[in-house]
Amino acid sequence: MRTRVIRTFLTIAFASLAAALLALDLYAAQASPSLWYPLLMITGTILLLAAMLAYLFVRSFSRQTAELRSYAERLLDPLASGEQLPAGNDDLGDLARSLQRMAPKIRELVETLKLENARREAILASMVEGVLAVDKDLRVTFCNNSFARAVGARIPVHAGLPLLDLVRDPGLLEVMNGVLATGERSEHRLTLPAAADHTFEVLAGPLAGPSTRGALAILHDVTELERLERVRKDFVANVSHELRTPLAAIRGYAETLLDGALQDEKHNRRFVEIIEAQATRLSNIASDLLTLSELESNGKARPTPPQPVSIRAVAESAMRTVESAARVRGVRLVCGHMDDVAVLGSELRLEQVLVNLLDNAVKFNRPNGEVRLEVRELDDGAVRIAIRDTGIGIPSEDLPRIFERFYRVDKARSREMGGTGLGLSIVRHVIEQMSGTIKVDSQLGVGSEFVITLPALD
Ligand code: ADP
Q: What are the sequence ranges of the domains in the chain?
């Protein structure tokens, strides 16, 4: 096969030579017929020699091309470098030397490409973002594990799988189809039902290879970002709402006073008292918000190292703080069982927690009611702080939400009592920062019990 061209060429040359020699013989034999046989003998000998030379040439050429072919086929094999190659000064020798010179460079290039490919695959596999590549027929050419997980597919996903078999979501199919049709990049926000309704920012674009066409999509999970954005918006709306009421009251009463009520001896003092109460409320909201923001930043702004805190000392101090409010409301403060245990944390914050809980227990109590505080060291190295009241209780449907910012069961009653709706939110943050938990148990009309569990200090 390889030497077919040369063989054909040699056969034609041999036939032409034979024809030319025979023609010459015939011509000479016409002039002197006695020369016919000797001439025929000479022609035969020449043709025989030519045939032998051609055979030897074809054989040597075949051998050399076979060597070159085997070397070329095993070019990437390092063992092939020791192979015997045609070394003559002819064209085949030149070709062999060129191949030998190129071989290490090609091997190095292939190694670099392999390494690069392995690196790229490792990066794509460890990416949090989902990556999907499809060909022009919407068959998957590559997808990483994050993508497979996002669409609920079994890992590994084999190349060549129709995208429709992998993703049922019409939104994503539409995006990929759009890119293939227009060849242009596009950005979308999609919610994938297969990914437990997570929302993704999808960045899709064309993927043009030297001979192929396809599309590539990168999926970035923005569910948490969206949630945080929603929380932020709600928070801003809540804060504005909370500030609006006292500000409107202050403004209203100040205007009434300026419009002549200053001279109204019967009412002016009450109006100023209302202004003062509303200003106090604004200041409480501001300081609670500051505390919350400090807690939420995890004390990054001014990190204070945790200190050993004696619960008994903190509990007694908190009881003293709410004593007067309890007396005013006719609520009895009872100090129950009190183990002397220490925990690790901030004394100031823990006192704030107990004051908030005791204050609520007094505020949402009934006349002649009771608030009981107990501290017990548990066997498992934890300390249990319980604050129980005989107050109005909390409806069970509200229980899961009372630790949310600005959540109140009875907004009017809470505001009337000077509450900001941030107290329990602060309590939960502080306790969680101290690696503890807080639970609440309540019965409408009977009372509530808040139980804090903290790791005790040895
Ligand atoms: P507030 O400033 O309104 O007290 P909190 O965050 O401290 O805000 O409490 C949130 C809501 O939880 C209160 O408005 C109240 O409805 C309810 N709550 C908290 N503690 C008690 C309690 N001991 N008894 C009844 N309801 C309570």
A: 2-105, 127-221, 227-296, 307-455
